[in-house]
UniProtKB/TrEMBL annotation:
The keyword Kinase applies. The chain crosses the membrane at residues 40-60, 72-91, 98-116, 128-145, 152-171, 177-200. This is ATP-binding protein. SUPFAM superfamilies: ATPase domain of HSP90 chaperone/DNA topoisomerase II/histidine kinase. InterPro entries: HATPase_C_sf, Sensor_HK_TwoCompSys. Keywords: ATP-binding, Kinase, Membrane, Nucleotide-binding, Transferase, Transmembrane, Transmembrane helix, Two-component regulatory system. The keyword Iron does not apply. It comes from Microbacterium commune. One of its GO terms (molecular function) is ATP binding. PANTHER family: NITRATE/NITRITE SENSOR PROTEIN NARX-RELATED, OXYGEN SENSOR HISTIDINE KINASE NREB. It comes from the Bacteria.
Length: 415
């Protein structure tokens, strides 16, 4: 029986330890929406970088007759990190490092463009191939840098491009119109890219924060519920075992009664000592036969010194172990109440299973009865040890009492 009582306490302890501590719910919690958003941004960036990178590469190779050593070095400086960036965006690995490398090296290549490239390669009416990658540099900053640096790249790169184009063209009037158009276009597009990225990230962060608060609230409510259930289970244990043993010891007069009181006290101490035992010691949840339940109830009657019988009715059945434990413990409490308050007069126990998957236990006596409504909130003999215990296993409990006696009926039906 000690293992049966431990089952209630240990099951609650298992639930308690599985709950996150209030205040620590957000610690280490996966930012699922934020991570998904980062993956989406990286994939879109990879697609755009591939398309514009191919366009820039074709533009560079179309004037291969004008390529020289410094120009080829600039191409390697730009397209090498760009290829790494594209691979990183699609694979999801080393994204920050690859994008950061391209953003910095592209800015350097853009700054030295007038020095290494002849003016003859870039007429005023034709955009140089490096222009097609200005906003890819902004995308790289979006994926690698903080918001402040992202806006620096979105605003700075277009103006750097405009300045080097004017320097390369000797600030001739023919360069001003086309360069102004290019700078305004890339400036607006880069600002939109950074703004959308910032907005999407803020939305994702808001969703993650809302989920974390919801989990925090749930954890607090679940912890409070688990604490209350643990308190009720401990109170039931104290009432079922300790208090019953103390009352039996106080009222023991004969040698047999004193011997039974000692046995009850020893069992109560064992139950208390094992409330923190491992879950593996709580007993099996394998189906328990009705005959086993009857044997436990007869043992309970013997411990109480009650002259009563346990009657079996219906077909033999087996119920889940946790249900059997709950019904036996609730019936023991009903027997204790009958012996304590009705002096065991007319005590009778019926274990009935009308059909497969159904079991009822009825404990009746012919005592004076009592007023259910008058039972105080601090009295747990019925509220915790019977009603709550049966409710915990999806069972039912019904108590009928009047001046002619009391009947406690416990029921369980397989759902």
């Amino acid at each position: 029986m000690a293992s049966e009582v431990r089952a209630d306490i240990d099951a609650i302890s298992e639930a308690w330890t599985s709950l996150p501590s209030p205040g620590e719910v957000g610690v280490g919690l996966e930012r699922f929406t934020g991570q998904r958003m980062e993956r989406i941004l990286a994939t879109v960036g990879g697609i755009g970088s591939t398309a514009l990178g191919a366009q820039a590469l074709l533009g560079a190779l179309s004037r291969i007759d004008l390529l020289d050593g410094p120009h080829v070095a600039v191409m390697v400086m730009v397209f090498g990190p760009l290829l790494w960036m594209i691979v990183a965006c699609f694979s999801g690995r080393w994204i920050s490092q690859a994008c950061g490398s391209f953003a910095v090296l592209y800015a350097v290549a853009l700054a030295i463009w007038p020095v290494v490239v002849d003016r003859g390669l870039n007429e005023a009416e034709n955009q140089p191939w490096i222009f097609f990658l200005v906003n890819i540099g902004v995308v790289a900053a979006l994926l690698a840098f903080s918001p402040r640096l992202q806006f620096v790249w979105a605003i700075g790169l277009p103006f750097v491009y405009g300045y080097v184009r004017l320097v390369q063209g000797g600030f001739e009037q023919s360069y001003w119109i086309t360069t102004a158009f290019d700078v305004s276009f890339t400036l607006i597009l880069g600002s939109v890219i950074v703004s959308l990225g910032w907005m999407f990230r803020q939305v994702a962060a808001g969703v993650d924060d809302a989920r974390a608060r919801a989990v925090e609230t749930y954890a607090e409510a679940a912890a409070a519920s688990a604490a209350e259930e643990e308190r009720m289970a401990m109170s039931a244990l104290m009432h079922d075992s300790v208090l019953a043993a103390l009352i039996s010891a106080e009222r023991a007069e004969s040698a047999r009664e004193r011997s039974l009181a000692v046995a009850m006290a020893r069992e109560a101490l064992t139950r208390l000592a094992n409330t923190e035992a491992a879950i593996a010691q709580e007993g099996s949840d394998e189906p328990a036969a009705r005959s086993r339940i009857v044997a436990e109830l007869r043992r309970a009657l013997s411990e109480q010194g009650a002259d009563a019988v346990v009657e079996e009715r219906g077909v033999p059945v087996a119920v889940p172990g946790r249900v059997a434990r709950a019904m036996v413990l609730a019936a023991r409490q009903a027997i204790n109440n009958a012996v304590l308050h009705a002096k065991g007069r007319g005590l009778h126990v019926i274990v009935e299973s009308p059909e497969e998957g159904q079991l009822t236990i009825a404990v009746s006596d012919t005592g004076p009865g009592f007023d259910l409504a008058a039972i105080g909130e601090d009295r747990l003999g019925i509220r915790a040890s019977i009603v709550a215990r049966m409710a915990a296993v999806a069972g039912t409990s019904n108590i009928v009492t009047d001046s002619t006696g009391t009947t406690v009926e416990l029921g369980w039906r397989e759902s």
